[in-house]
Amino acid sequence: MLWAWLEALLGHACPGCGGRLDRPLLCAACRMGLRAKAWGEVVYLGPYGQVGGLVRALKYGRRLGLAPLLAFPLAEAVRAQGWDLKGVTAVPTLLPRLLLRGYNPPEALAQEVARLLGLPYRRVLRRVRYAPSQPTRGRARGRLPSGLFAPRLRVEGAWLLVDDVLTSGATFLRAKEALLRAGAARVYGAFLAVRDPGALGPYR
User: Fold this and answer.
1) What is the three-class DSSP state of 74?
2) All domains of the chain, ordered by start, with CATH?
3) What is the 8-class DSSP label of residue 154?
4) Residues 87, 149, 159: CA angle, nearest 5 degrees
5) I need a labelling partner for 6 at 20 to 30 A (CA). Which of 59, 141, 150, 182 fits?
6) DSSP classification of residue 11
7) Contact 165, 125 (CB under 8 A)
8) What pLDDT does 1 receive?
9) pLDDT given for residue 53 in this prediction
10) Which PANTHER family has this protein been placed in (predicted)?
């Protein structure tokens, strides 16, 4: 209660609902409402319109303590799917962005998911090229260079690839391709939010 009181004193609202914080980082009602959905080969917390506040708090608000809370329902959903995973990795960011923020939100999330699943976390990929943010609509959204990511090390078996938001699906697709080139036999996905439901189509 002390941390919640301090956060309230500093003007921090619950990033999930915008209401009063009665627990640290996330209010009790929002904690109870965290349920991940499964869609074929991916799991996610919800549509961006519903869980976007949590994404923004983790990604831009430097509320890194949210990572364990948000990873728990994702790990539970992954476990329920029965995927025979060898490890967990994350969609990497560019070094300047990493230095500016101090951490990569998908990696923070992936590390917690791996810990909860009892699996190794590895930085399998590196981002080698810049690409602009993906729009949520239009045919141009899927046009990303094929060399956006490159393997850093070799892996085998099935792997879980974690990102914070599935927008058009183009970035995840390029990362998935690189992970397959690294030796993964199969790639599953986990996200906090989905902006465009149409992007889930290929993973059914």
Assistant:
1) helix
2) 1-33 (no CATH), 34-134+146-203 (3.40.50.2020)
3) -
4) 15
5) 59
6) T
7) no
8) 46
9) 96
10) DNA UTILIZATION PROTEIN YHGH (PTHR47505:SF1)
**Burial status of residue 23 (CB atoms within 10 A of its CB: 0-12, 13-18, 19 or more):** middle
The 3-state secondary structure of 34-100, one letter per residue? CCCEEECCEEEEEEHHHHHHHHHHHHCCCCCCHHHHHHHHHHHHHHHHCCCEEEEEECCCCHHHHHH
CA dihedral (107, 144, 167, 199) in degrees, to 10, reads: -120
Is this model's pTM higher than 0.85 or not?
yes
Q: In what order do the strands lie in the sheet with 85-90?
A: 37-39, 42-47, 186-194, 158-166, 85-90
Torsion angle, CA of 127/133/136/142, rounded to 10 degrees?
A: -50
- Which token pair is 140? 């141009």
Task: Give, for all 204 residues of the chain, the pLDDT tens digit.
Answer: 444 455 555 567 999 999 988 889 999 999 999 999 999 999 999 999 999 999 999 999 889 999 999 999 999 999 999 999 999 999 998 877 777 788 999 999 999 999 999 999 999 999 986 665 554 444 434 567 778 899 999 999 999 999 999 998 999 999 999 999 999 999 999 999 999 999 998 887
Give CA–CA dist 58/53, Å, rounded: 9
CA distance 73 to 54: 14
